[in-house]
Structures are given as C-alpha cells and as structure tokens.
Design brief:
- The radius of gyration is 20 Å and the shape is globular.
- The longest helix has 22 residues.
- The protein is built from five helices and five strands; from the N terminus they run αβαβααβββα.
- The protein has a five-stranded mixed sheet with strand order 2-1-3-4-5, with helices on both faces.
- The protein is of the alpha/beta class.
- α3 crosses α4.
Length: about 160
Amino acid sequence: MNKMFQTALFCFAFLFAHGFAVAGSADGPYVVWMNLARDPAPVDLRIKTITGDEGCGFKDRNGILFMRIKPEYITKELVERGLVNREPAAIAELNQLLSKPFDLADEGFDGIQVYTDKPTPHIHTLTKGNQRIKSRPININDEGDLESTFCNESPRITRA
C-alpha cells in the first residue's frame, strides 16, 4: 500500500510540474517588421493578412508583429546597414536594441524581419543573439512564396 501511494504521489508531482513548465513558456515570436520597398503598402497588407489569419501560427502562439508601432531607436537606416549591408557594428547594435523592453514586448524582441525590393525582392531576418543574417529571395507575384518565406524565416523565440 505504501509503494502504491508513493507511485501515485510521484505521478501527481510529475504532471503538476509539467503543467507549470508549459504555462511559463514564452509567447511569440515578437518580431519587428520593416519594409524598405519603394512602395511598401502592397507587401505590408499581405503580411498583415498572413499574421492576422492562421498563417504561421502567429495567432495561435500569441505572436506579435510590430509593424506600425515600433521602437524609434530601431531606425530604417540602422536596419538597412545591419540586415541589407551586413555591417557587423550595426548588427551588434541591433542585437543590443532587441533586448530592450517596448510596449507589449516587455522582455524585448526575438528578432527583425525586413522586406526589400532593391535590387530584387528579398526577406532578411535577424534573430536576437545571432550575428548571421538570413536572406531569402522571393517571387513577390506568388502569394504562397511570400507567405512561406515569411513564415519559414521568422525568428525563433529567444525570450525565456
């Protein structure tokens, strides 16, 4: 009888602890979106639709795309220097700035995604803590390509 009680107590403790581990998981990702295109409206509208629907699981994971409201300290110039031109000093500065709290991202951001159309359409991604920029060309006329590239290249969750 005592062995059965110990086993039941162990199982209860394991299940109870597992519930807390899942409950404490970070939502996300929290991503700064920046569009450096000459005409940003069409792509921004499509990205907003992707993240607002069930695309990428943003809604399911409580991810937030900071598209309109974003920190003033993450400027277009800095993002272009870091993600497009790949200047190491700009990448290091962006990594520091991504850790700063802003609005609902009270623990900072997980990364930045940038769309540029010069010289050809690309999505560039920096995940906080990395020095490497991921860049993927996209066919802007293919809605599926834009969605799959945006979703597949979204920064992973780096917050605790």
